[in-house]
Structure formats: C-alpha cells, structure tokens
C-alpha cells in the first residue's frame, strides 16, 4: 500500500467528526434524508465520483478495473427525542440519530475522500452506497432494485457498536444479526355484560391463553440448540369494567437466525391461534410480515476483514451475535461480504447507553478507525 490508511484517516479525523456532528444536529427519518444525501452528494461530486441517485440514496463509483468492491453506510435517524446535553444535540424535536447512522455516513465520507486522493493506486472500482431507511424501511432493497450491486464482487458495511469497547473492531463469520418479522391480529368473540359471561364468547381469556401458548413455540417447538424469539408486545381489549368486549387485539415481533426457524414460528402461531379459538368458539385474524432476513457474514470475507484489521494493527474481537436486525442482510443474500462492528463504548465519557436510547452517543475519537478499515478493505480487496 502506497499510503497508510490509519494515518490518512487520522489526518482528516476533525472533518469526520464535524460531518458527524452536523448530521447529528439535523436528523432525518427514513426516506426523508434530503439534506443529508445532498451534503454527501456534493462532497462526492467534488472528489470526482460518478453519481447515481436512487431517491434519497446514492450510488457512487470511482476507479476502473475488473473487480468492484462496495462499501455501505446508512443515513436515517429515529423518531426519538434526544436527552443528551451536548453542543451537537439534535436540533429537530422528536428526531435523533440514536443508532449511530450519522457516524456511519461520516466515516464513509472520510473513506471516500481518502480513496479519491489515492485512486491511481487502486486496481479496480470502488462503489459507495449511501442508503436511506435502514430503520424498518428496508432501504437496502430499494438500493438493490436501483442497481447498487450490479457488477459488485464483495460488500462490506460497518455499524458502531455499544457492546464493544471503544476502538475494537468486531468481526464474526456466519450469522451476526437476526431475521425479524412482525405479527398482529385479533380474536373475535361475542361481547356482552360483564356479569353474564355465559352469554358471551369472551376474547380476553382466549387472548391470555394464546399469549402463553406462544411462549411454548421457542421453549417446546424450536430445537434447543437453535434460537428464536417470539415477543407479544401489545395487547388491547375493551374499555369498561362491566363490558365483555367483542374483540381482543395483539401484536409483536419474532426473530430467528435460520429461515426454517422463521417458518416454524410462523406456522406454529397460526396453528396455536386456530386451535385455541376453535376450542372456545371464537374466530381470529392473523397477519405476519417478514421484515428482514438474518445477516449472515461470508466466511471468507469475514476472514479477509480480520486480516485487514491485523495488518492495520487494530484491536479486534469476535463480536457476539444479536437478535437485533439489519437490512444489510439483503446485500449479503446477493453478494459475499461481511457486516462489521466498531466498538464505541466508553465508560469514562459516559457513553454507555444502548442503541435507540434517548441518551445514546458514540465515542467520536475512534471513528477514524472505521474510516481506515473501510479504505484498507477496498485497497486490499482490489489488489
Ligand atoms: Zn437501529
Ligand atoms: Zn443501525
């Protein structure tokens, strides 16, 4: 390598932090990333990237050659009121970068700058993907439909990670984040007077039975060596103390690492609802939507990332899998790659709150390491 990615990234560290703070102060929700993507596009054009727009998303290419490596950042914020008391606090009431996507965008911008300054030394094409709507919007799918993976040989993405100490790179082969789905439905009985239950079909105990029976899916149907989650997170029935309601509603989420476990969970929910409601003479509706697939890192690509981290003399650790979900999974379905983590937990600075918490923050002093890793991944892959 004619250049040292770590010292190059360190050189522009202030810029990376400035970008991150600017994005942090101006958070935009999924598919509304107009300002953020505008700033990203302006810089990329200035640095000589060829730009293709996909709504508020950007596909940016630089260099030519047989191989293409893609690097991805997400840009969207969350509908959360920030509770941090920092100079770069969100200026938008009710919106906050509480997952660190501001940092992802800033790190990849830094990478973009370094690559553009050294593009003559790169033996191929680098594609940067700045995507919208990672938070429950499956922006990755829109980017893929827009051609983000055309001609791409490998893809990498970073997430800042509260479960790792600051500056530690988290690498894992195989399943890293879970597949996720949502379900919702209602039990339809027959309403009536609270004092005359025999003249009604009370949906409340039927729902209670259903919620408990759902707990047996993971404990009794899923192979104990495997893993899954079924969480009923909302129930609603009736208003008055003396009225047996007609309907009882519920919703929740399920998580899984293997598609067959996801299928099993879906099938069992349907069977349990069908059986319990029939036993009581009630009816039901159930809708299930699979949101995201499991994020499964390619073995070879995870190994490659590890070699790059070691070459840069960065600290790394095998990162624990989580039942959280990431739409990066959709890219990994199409091309080999790996989703990597950058530790940002710093007890001394009070940076300890989990992702999506109103006091979430990132240790900015390590963001340049993410930038360095991205630049090095691109350079080494294209060699
Ligand atoms: Zn998130
Ligand atoms: Zn995120």
Description:
This protein has 383 residues and is an alpha/beta fold. The protein has 2 domains: 260 residues, Aminopeptidase (3-Layer(aba) Sandwich); 114 residues, Alpha-Beta Plaits. It is 35% helix and 27% strand. The protein contains 10 helices and 16 strands. The protein has an 8-stranded mixed sheet, sandwiched between helices. A 4-stranded antiparallel sheet has the order 10-12-8-13, covered by helices on one side. The relative contact order is 0.20. Bound molecules: zinc ion (2 copies). One zinc ion (ZN) binds next to loops. The site of one zinc ion (ZN) has 4 residues, from loops.
Q: What are the distinct ligands in this entry? A: zinc ion
CATH architecture of the largest domain: 3-Layer(aba) Sandwich
CATH superfamily of the largest domain: Zn peptidases
Outline: elongated
For the biggest β-sheet, the strand order reads 1-2-4-3-5-16-6-15
Task: Please count the beta strands (DSSP E, at least 2 residues each).
Answer: 16
Keywords:
single chain; 383 residues; alpha/beta; Aminopeptidase; Alpha-Beta Plaits; 8-stranded mixed β-sheet; 4-stranded antiparallel β-sheet; elongated; binds zinc ion; Peptidase_M20; Bact_exopeptidase_dim_dom; metal-binding; hydrolase activity; Amidohydrolase
Summarize this structure briefly.
About 35% of the residues lie in helices and about 25% in strands. The protein has about 375 residues and is an alpha/beta fold. The chain folds into 2 domains: about 5-175 and about 295-380, Zn peptidases (Aminopeptidase, 3-Layer(aba) Sandwich), CATH 3.40.630.10; about 180-290, Alpha-Beta Plaits, CATH 3.30.70.
